Amino acid sequence: MDQEPSWQRQLLIGLSALIAIGLLIGGVMAAIAVKAFDYAGLGGNSGSASSPAPILPTTGDATHTAPPPRTPATSSSSPTPPAVRTRRPPPPQHAITLSASPKTVSSFGRINLAGTYPGNDGASLQVQRSLGDGPWADFPVDTTVTNGTFATYIQTSMLGINHIRVIDKATGRTSNAVTVKIG
């Protein structure tokens, strides 16, 4: 004679099945969320060299341009002292250095960007692009300086010569420009 399981056993089996299904669905959703955050560049270590922030491809029609650097206003109430001839210091070196690799890629190819910005840990650097002799426009990616270095990558479909730099918008300092050929 078959004996039906007690209601407690049925409840335990049902709860175990629900927990297993919940864990499975939760794990899948967590994996999807982590990949989405990484793809969108919202991960916590997006500026580290070991795991650069993924960049969403762009068609290259960024419309935000970098504002011109601010110059302090001078007071005109006091007369200007006569000019004193002094030796001008050599032009300043870029405090931010930038390199790109590779220098030639196909459309939407990965361009690795890395550089240094000593003494500026935590600074956020905005990637910018100029096509030909055009104005600098913000590229939809930024990176953070850690231990004096930064790294990220970009992808674009804008064919031809692309000039890339990074800018610390808090200070107005820019890196050297690197040239990459997309084609």
Give structural attributes.
alpha+beta; 9 strands; 1 helix; six-stranded mixed β-sheet; three-stranded antiparallel β-sheet; elongated; 183 residues
Strand content: 25-35%
End-to-end distance, in Å?
78 Å
Main sheet specs: 6 strands, mixed
The ordered H/E elements are HEEEEEEEEE
Mean pLDDT: 78
CA-based gyration radius: 27 Å
Structural class: alpha+beta
Strand segment count: 9
Number of H/I helices? 1
Uncertain residue segments: 44-68
Helix content: 10-25%
Q: Assembly state here?
A: single chain
Q: Name the shape in a single word.
A: elongated
How would you describe what is shown here?
- This protein is an alpha+beta fold and 183 residues long.
- Residues 44-68 have low confidence and may be disordered.
- It is elongated, with a radius of gyration of 27 Å.
- The strands form two sheets. Strands 2, 4, 5, 7, 8 and 9 form a six-stranded mixed sheet that branches. A three-stranded antiparallel sheet has the order 1-3-6, with no helix packed on it.
- It starts with 6 loop residues before the first helix and ends with a strand.
- The protein has one helix at 7-40, and strands spanning 97-101, 104-105, 111-116, 124-131, 137-144, 149-154, 160-168, 173-174, 178-182.
- β7 (160-168) and β8 (173-174) form a beta hairpin.
Summarize the structure.
The protein has 183 residues and is an alpha+beta fold. The chain has one helix and nine strands; from the N terminus they run αβββββββββ. The protein has one helix spanning 7-40; strands at 97-101, 104-105, 111-116, 124-131, 137-144, 149-154, 160-168, 173-174, 178-182.
